[in-house]
Amino acid sequence: MGTASRRAAIRLLDAVLRRGEPLEAALASATRALPGGPDRGLAHAIAAETLRRLPDLDALIDSATKQRLPDDAKARFALRIALVQVLALGTPPHAAISTVLPLVDGGPRKLVHGVFSTITKSGVLLPEIPALPDATEARWEENWGEEMVEAAAHAIAAPPPLDLTLADSSATQEWAEKLGGVSLLPGHVRLPSGSAVMELQGFDEGAWWVQDLAASIPARLLGEGRGHVLDLCAAPGGKTLQLAAAGWTVTAIDQSESRLARLSENLERTNQSAEVVTADLREWAPKEPVDAILVDAPCSASGIFRRHPDVLYRVRPAIIAEMAELQRVILTRAADWLKPGGTLVYATCSLEPEEGENQIAAFLDQRPDYALVPITGVWPGITDKGTIRTLPTMLAKEGRLDGFFIAMLQRKG
Ligand SMILES: C[S@@+](CC[C@H](N)C(=O)[O-])C[C@H]1O[C@@H](n2cnc3c(N)ncnc32)[C@H](O)[C@@H]1O
């Protein structure tokens, strides 16, 4: 695995940092020329780790250059990926630089080699706790305070654990023991990061599926099946599986065919069933009102920055406003589809109040036919208002949580 993987890693970084694309979305086109899975995996790992450590890598590069390299300079990209391999991924310096230098042939090769050698020979290390990008740090500090920013930085340093949701929560202890994990809620098992999912006991028989603990809360709030539920924005289906396993008659709707294909595979593997509909929720409507609705709205995804470090760079006020508007449209339409007395759960994996707290406050102002149902129980992150706000500060010793906002609403009867 050589220069081609490194070239693809730079393409991925360029897609995220210059074009604002999600890392996962850029993967297929940036790695198309690579021969196999391991090469693609390497390109992805280098790009993701670079994004986790970008401010620290740039500070090192700046400390070793007389004139600051522009942010989009080829030399800076080459140095970032060469250095991250040595300082974070354990690649020997010779292998890291020899596979990166061909990428700057006919250009700043000498500069890249010189700066790389100065830094790696100095014995300097990356700080134990990564720095956050300035704009993200400022936004999160304003919204959640210094402690949250510190926790977020710690969260980036350690790869997140693997959370599983069990199809049968009465077997929680049994599965925790079988898999060697710990359970933090009934129906949940947490394993160390890096566990090979498909090799774990129970994968083939569909006894569980991968789902962050915070992400598992919205469907849990709807409880045992009491009729027909619309799972809006359903793919790849973690919440669909939970609802089906709880006995609901589920209609799962999403606009992405490729993500719905994964949802159908997941249903098959876990032996659950749901009606699957490919549709844009700005246009689709059900034939009749339903008993419950789960809106797992599309969002900036800033709450899942541990697994998707590109959000640290892509999520800006304009993106947040655009997603908040889409959420508003979907939520407002969905609100007309619920029977009086029915329950609607709204969730976003976002750390931006515009996509959570503010969205629901504005909705309740507009819809006197809806009331907030204060959430009670064992869930982490219950606020004074009775909504849930999970933050990376929570369950710090147990491996932390993704950032989620969840509200439960009832249509007045
Ligand atoms: C947060 S993800 C859903 C995760 C899913 N609920 C789960 O638990 O696995 C948001 C989803 O919204 C879908 N989406 C975005 N805009 C949409 C729209 N206008 N209509 C329907 N689905 C949409 C995306 O394709 C994406 O799958």
Sum up the structure in keywords.
N-utilizing Substance Protein B Homolog, Chain A; alpha/beta; 3-stranded antiparallel β-sheet; 2 domains; binds S-adenosylmethionine; globular; about 425 residues; 16 helices; 8-stranded mixed β-sheet
How would you explain this protein's 3D organization?
The structure is a single chain. The protein has helices spanning 3-17, 23-30, 37-52, 54-63, 74-87, 93-100, 109-121, 134-144, 146-157, 172-179, 217-221, 238-245, 257-270, 311-314, 317-335, 357-366; strands at residues 162-166, 188-191, 208-210, 228-232, 249-254, 275-278, 290-296, 338-348, 370-372, 388-390, 404-411. It has 413 residues and is of the alpha/beta class. The chain has 2 domains: 3-122, N-utilizing Substance Protein B Homolog, Chain A (Orthogonal Bundle), CATH 1.10.940; 211-411, 3-Layer(aba) Sandwich (Rossmann fold). Strands 4, 5, 6, 7, 8, 9, 10 and 11 form an 8-stranded mixed sheet that branches. Strands 2-1-3 form a 3-stranded antiparallel sheet, with helices on both faces. Helix 3 (37-52) crosses helix 5 (74-87). It is globular and about 75 Å long. S-adenosylmethionine (SAM) binds at residues 233-239, 254-256, 259, 280-282, 296, 298, 349. Residues 253-280 form a coiled coil. Keywords: Coiled coil, Methyltransferase, RNA-binding, S-adenosyl-L-methionine, Transferase. This is Methyltransferase domain-containing protein. Belongs to the class I-like SAM-binding methyltransferase superfamily. RsmB/NOP family.
